[in-house]
Amino acid sequence: MKILLIISSCLGVFFMLPGYMEYCFSIEGKASRKIYGAYVISGLGDMNVLTRFFNSQSKAKYLSPKNTREGKFETVLNIDEMHELCFKSLDNEVKTISFEFSQDEYIQEQSLAGEDQFQPINDEVSLASKLLETIYRNLHFYERRERTHRDLTENTCDNILLSVLIKILVLCFLSFIQLYVLIRLINTNKLGV
Prior knowledge:
Radius of gyration: 29 Å
Domain GOLD: 12-187
CATH topology: Jelly Rolls
Main location: membrane
CATH class: Mainly Beta
Structural class: alpha+beta
Distance between the termini: 79 Å
Pfam families: EMP24_GP25L
Organism: Stentor coeruleus
Subcellular location: Membrane
Order of helices and strands: EEEEEEEEEH
Strand order of the largest sheet: 1-3-8-5-6
Mean pLDDT: 84
């Protein structure tokens, strides 16, 4: 089953991917802009997800490497076209996926000075903006990932505690049975002697 959701610009999406399902998200790209994004996969079987980013002609712009749970992609657009980001689960486990993707806005410059004078400043500001956005995105990814792993750890601890309690009860029951049999054996030997 394939689900398609169209998004114009996305700060962050967090969703659960059921086993053997594929969810796709689309973004309408404009010419002379750059689309970029990143994703993180958490949960059991988090390395069993195929991530693809491709254009409207199904030409792959990004394919996730095997045995990875996170990645980044970017592409520069020459024409207006739709792009899709798809996540496909390759096993039966439910996974948590966090991703973001967006495109740079094209800004027309209006200044009294020549473009050449402001180009280095624009380049530095653009680079600083991208770096800050990457840091912001990574902080949110790791926050979500930490939350998911904390829940998984708490669930595992609860299961271990339940297992230990069951073992203690079984051992107490076996000790009681052995003590009962031993007492009956001693009483039987006293009566028989």
